[in-house]
Every structure is written in C-alpha cells, then in structure tokens.
Specification:
With about 100 residues, the chain is an alpha+beta fold. The chain is built from two helices and four strands; from the N terminus they run E-H-E-E-H-E. It has a single domain (about 5-80), classed as ACT domain (Alpha-Beta Plaits, 2-Layer Sandwich). It is elongated, with a radius of gyration of 17 Å.
Length: about 100
C-alpha cells in the first residue's frame, strides 16, 4: 500500500472564453480524484487562470488527477510536487 503525502499542484489555464467554466471543469476533475483538498487559490488575470492546490493523498492518485487535468482543452500546464516536511525540534528542560 502506498503512503499518503502532501502535494502542491499548479494548474495554468487560458482565460479566453469563459473563465468560470474552465475553473468548474477543473474542479470537477479534482473532485473525482481520491485526494483530500487542503487549500485552493485561484488567480484570474486577463489572459491566464492560475490555480494553486495543496492536497493530501497517494502519489498515484495525484498523478491521475494531473493527467486528467492536462487533457482539458483550457489547461496550458499542470505540474505537481511533494511538499517538504519541516520538522521542528522542541527542547524542554527541567531546571
């Protein structure tokens, strides 16, 4: 069984026809994936839509979602990467 991890997914879409339709199509693909969405940020400009997603799940599922997103005609670029885990050290002393 593969281990779950935290991932960052970046999607760039064209903003030519109807930007809300493009975002809804992308969200429907993401919704079908077996990943938990922790954060979504959508930045729309005159020419592009940038969607930044932080998700948790198995890498195979994240890859599946990215491959499906890449097949949407609005999507220009999709990439994902594991998020780095930062370990904080806490020192407690008794005197």
């Amino acid at each position: 069984m593969a281990m779950e991890g935290d991932f960052s997914i970046e999607v760039v879409m064209s903003n030519e026809v109807n930007p809300f339709d493009a975002v809804v199509r992308a969200m429907n693909v993401i919704r079908r994936g077996k990943i938990a969405i922790r954060h979504v940020n959508i930045d729309m400009s005159d020419s592009v839509i940038k969607v930044s997603i932080r998700a948790r799940g198995e890498e195979d599922e994240v890859r599946w979602v990215c491959n499906k997103l890449d097949k949407l005609y609005d999507v220009v670029n999709v990439k994902y990467m594991p998020e780095e885990v930062h370990v904080n050290k806490v020192v407690v002393s008794n005197g």
